[in-house]
Structures are given as C-alpha cells and as structure tokens.
Amino acid sequence: MLVITGLIYTGVWHLFSLFVWQHPMLSWLPLLAVLVVGTLIGTVRALTGVGGPALAASPPGDGEGQQPQRPARDAVVDAETRSGSRAGGARRRRVQDAVAPGVDVAASEPGETEAPAPTPPVRRSGFDFAFGWGLLAGLVVLACGLWFTLISPPTIDLDDIDYVVVDRLPQQTQPRLLPRSGIDDNPAFREAKEVHLVRDPETGELLWTGEWHSSWLGGQSDGIAVKSLDEMIAPAEIVHAGFDEAVAGIQPSTLKGKAYAKHPFSRVQYPVLLPTGDREAIAIAPYIGYKGFPFKTPYMKGVLVYHQDGTLEDLTPEEAAARPDLVRTGRLFPEAVARAQAEALARSDEFEGDIHDGKNNRQPYLTAIDRNLTVWVTIIDDESRAGGVKAIVLTDSSTGETQAWRPSPGHELISSEDVLNTARALPLKWKEERCCDSDGHSYTVTLREVVEARLAFKYGKPYYMVSVVPTDDLALPREIEYTLILDAETGKELAKFDHVNGGVDADTRLQRFFR
Predict the structure, then answer these.
(1) E-assigned strand segments in 213-329
(2) How confident is residue 179, by pLDDT bands cut at 50, 70 and 90?
(3) pTM of this structure
C-alpha cells in the first residue's frame, strides 16, 4: 500500500503506463504471444491426442548395491522352476529354447525373488510442451521489439510531415550567445527549475526562464528567473510571479499531477514559464500522443496551459493555434516531435544523413528568425561524420510547418562535428591530474568542455558558434570562457572572444558581430 501510494502521489506510475502504451512489443505483446501460442498448440495436441516424445524409464536395480533387473525371459524360467517340475536337462532346454534360443537358463536358481514388472515409458506433459513453444514465441516478439526500439527505431512517415525543400536560408536570426550550460551556472538560475527558452510576446526575442524557488513536492513558488538569450552583460531578472502549486512540483494537485491523470498514455513535455505581467505568469506544456501499431510514432496531441491559481486548460492543437497570446510564445509545437520529424528526414532516401549531437544538449535548437517566427533548427550531417552538412531542418515552433534546406553544389557547409573538433584543438589545458583521493590515488579531472555547435544567420549567410565552458573543477568568474565564430562554408575561424580576460569588451564585440 505504501508503494502504491508513493507511485500515485509522485506521478511515477505515469512512466509505466506510458511505457506500456508506447512500447507494446516490450511489455504486453510478448505475454500475449506466450498465452496465445501456448494455448493454440496445447489445444491442437489435445484434440489430436498426440503426446510428447517418450522418455525412457530408469530400470530398477541400476542404483548402487542393487541387483540388476533380469530380462522377462528369466522370469518365465523361474516360474517353471517354482512349479515343482524337476525335469531333466531336456525339459530345461525346451523351456530355454521357448524363451530365447542361445540363453542359458541354468543361471536361474530356485528361490530367487520375482522381478518386478517393467515400468511403462513416461511421456512428457502436453502442458510443458505447449508452454515451451509459447515461451519461445514470446521471446521472439521481445527480440523484435528490442531491435526496432534500440537498433532500428521506426520513424514518422514522410507523408505525415508538412515539409518543403527551400533554396534559401533565413536572412537574420537572434544568435544563441548563452548556451544551456552557461545559463545553468548563472547564480539566479542555480535556484531555478524548469529552465527553458520562450519567446517574449512583446519583443519577439527568446528568453531563458526558470521557476525560482520551486518546491519539488508542491507548494508555492516565489517567482521566475529571466534572462535574454543574447544578453551576456546584464544580470538575470527575478519576476515575482509565483504559482500556488509549483510548476516543477510532482504531486496530484500540480501541473504534472493533473496532466498525468488526464493523459496517462501521453508524454507531457517539460513546462515552459512566461511572465505575462508584473506579478502574472503562465506555464505552457505541449503533450505528445503515439499512434501506429505495434511500432508507435509521436505526434502533437494538445497543449496544457497552467495558471498561477492552479487552473489547467487542456487545448487541442487547433484551439491553441487560435489563441494569439499562446502562438506568440513560440512554444506550442513539441521539441520531441520536431526532433522525430528531423530524424525521419535524415533517414529518408532524399537526404541520407545523420544527426550528431553535442554533449548534454540534443538538437534541435530553438532560434528566433524575427519577432513573429521562431523555429526548431536541426542539422543533418553526412553519416560518416567526415562529410559536410546534408540539410538544415527548420520547423516552426508554433505550427509545425517544416522547411528543409540543402546546400547547392559549391556551397557545402562543414559538419557540426568539425566545428566541435576545431574548438577542442585550442591550446588550452583540458584535463588535469590531481592528488589524491580517499585511497591516496591520483585522479584526472576535466577542466573545460566544448558545447553546442549552433548555427546563426546574418544577411542570409550561415555561421557557427561554439562555446568553451569551465567545469566545476575549474574556478573561473564566468560561465562561458570562450566563444568561437566560424564560417559555416569554409570552416575558417573568424573570431575568438575571451570572456574571462576580455570581460565586458569581449561580450560587447560578440553582440556587435551579429547586430
């Protein structure tokens, strides 16, 4: 009872219900195969009267210290002897010939114990036979499910993707100057949960927001931490617009608790917070359905809007698209569906590529094109990692409409992996050996990491930005140490900004590069 109560109170039960719905070949289909195949084979064998293969019975007397069992012909000889007949050798020979020619009956002496009747052959149970075939069928179903889940997962049908191939890239974008790892280390965001990007409805620019002083088990939160995506100088702002039940909380009365109860077979995406006034805010959480059988693919199923007093609106995609205040946030179309669509395009014969993610932050990246359009950007690289970019996928983060750009001959783009390797080649100390651990042994720590090879556009030309960030083992006064800008077509390093030694001047020069 305690376990069941804990699962319900924390919402962990939703992980099981979603898994069963999303992966039938890993949950209930193998059990069904065991029952169906076993019952079918068992019924057929019962109707036809066919038994299992005979198993030889162990003859008595094979154990240590026991007399071996004698053949049946010896029993016949004993019967003749016990009848009181004392015929001569001729009669004994007749009995011997009647039993088995060439066998010496004289070995049988009067008074010997009568041998027990032979044990009939043992046949294997029909239940065991049927269950064996059923278990084999269940294992086959499970193996197929593992293959199509881990090795070759199904992709969305291209006919279900609303995409067009374009020959031009966006003229301008808001650059992602602050990578995710940098904002997580910001002092104001260290005490925040549910840190994500959302578009400011007033300016159209992207903001990092997070719930400030939230409670994991529910209870009131104190506000929202806010910082612009391309603002590296000004500190983060705290908007005192808390929720009666914390957005990040997990219990029946919170956003997640109510969402799981209403949609036990849907995946609820992380909630994104947006200040809408001095002390007003909302949280938006799209949720994803899964269709198809037995291999399910994701699709946008609806949008949840959570208010400060705990009120929850459950909108269909059409209802959400009819609300301008929600469309302007740029957070209606789920990130997971945008990724699934990009993977379907990457595996298609039209593009034949792969998506290479950086550490700790998977693509796609949310990018503001202008004040009215925000897109999910995914880079499809060549499968070999040594080639260039095969395509750039831009999915409208409000409507899901998708554009796929392919480089023309002579205008190839270098891969995101090449950009990460360029940054890793900087003459910096990346690791350090320290002494000593609790056992007195030296150990190696990572001092710096390269994160997020992200695209930005200026006058229709693509650029890569990549950041070098310090780890907790390297004490630096900044969350970002270096930012590199590379020409996406040639791979040439155009600029390197040292935010630790260059300070505010380096921050300003980086902002001016794109403005």
Answers:
(1) 223-228, 237-239, 267-268, 272-275, 281-291, 297-307, 312-315
(2) confident
(3) 0.79
